[in-house]
Amino acid sequence: MAGIVPKPSGPNKLFNNPEQVFGDFRDDILRDGYAVVKGAVARERAEKYAEEMYDYLETFKGGLGFKRFDPTTYKEECLPVINEKGMCSGYGVNHETFTWDIRCEPGVVDAFAKVFDTDDLIVSFDAVNFALPKRKDTKENKPWPHQDQDPAKPDFRCLQGIVNLLPNGPNDGGLIVCKGAHRLSSEFHEEFKNEVDPVWRWTKEWYGFSDAGLAWLEKKGCPWIKIEAEPGDLLLWDSRLPHYNLSPTGDRPRFATYTCYMPAADATQEDLIKKKDAFEKQLGTTHWPNAAHVRDVSQPLMRKTGACPYNDDKPRQPIKLSERGMKLTGIPYIAASA
């Protein structure tokens, strides 16, 4: 299967013609910058994945004391390292069986195939989200409005995704987006190109919005919308869209996996070789499927007591993938001569 030449995006790739009407969720992305694909994963399967994620926490490294129905166990000593935003990366969780099964769900992959007008896609090895309500041992999850794209590259380049696995209402945390602001991204960055006190950027492919920037978006009439979803819904958004996440304020957790795909033809051979290395070492990436950023193993996951002793970057079971799943790793698209 090695050396497959991927089919590039076709003429119906999203934003090729901004006036095009598709009659489905793609119209929402064009207009609003985001969409909810209802039931991309069958509800019973989504509930099964949520159960597997609960089991993962309850049996983590033989069991550290976490119990799903006991909020007193929602604390660091009973859990893997989960930051204040609910994100967990490390321990091989990016390559757990449930994580890969979700990435390979036909309704999820096919939504991205429609957006990019090609079936030849690669997927990110992104984190999962275990946002547990009313944790008192993490710092406050303050708003961090940002877009995950280099302001100097203003065209549509990346569609991000979240597979929601538990009922997610107004008090259950989750994704909040600035509706319609993706269409103003070029204008915004031209206006703010000489920003006096910009938000610190850890990578060029990220931009944080200052108070002045948020005021500009508000003046332009772009409201902030907290997206609500059911188990199995797929949340999609243009990377140019300002967004961040909220923590649960009610009693229910938020469980979700981050899923992002791009055409394999858009990745270089160097990208694919780097991605292959990350896969073989079972390391995670950010949302960029071309492995633009791979977890730095020299930077340990930190607990309050120091480096986490449990992280070995290995999932509980060896990765086993279908033919389509292997294609999503990008490995089959590496040239035989590489």
Automatic annotation (TrEMBL):
<dbReference type="Pfam" id="PF05721">
    <property type="entry name" value="PhyH"/>
</dbReference>
<dbReference type="InterPro" id="IPR008775">
    <property type="entry name" value="Phytyl_CoA_dOase-like"/>
</dbReference>
<protein>
    <recommendedName>
        <fullName>Phytanoyl-CoA dioxygenase</fullName>
    </recommendedName>
</protein>
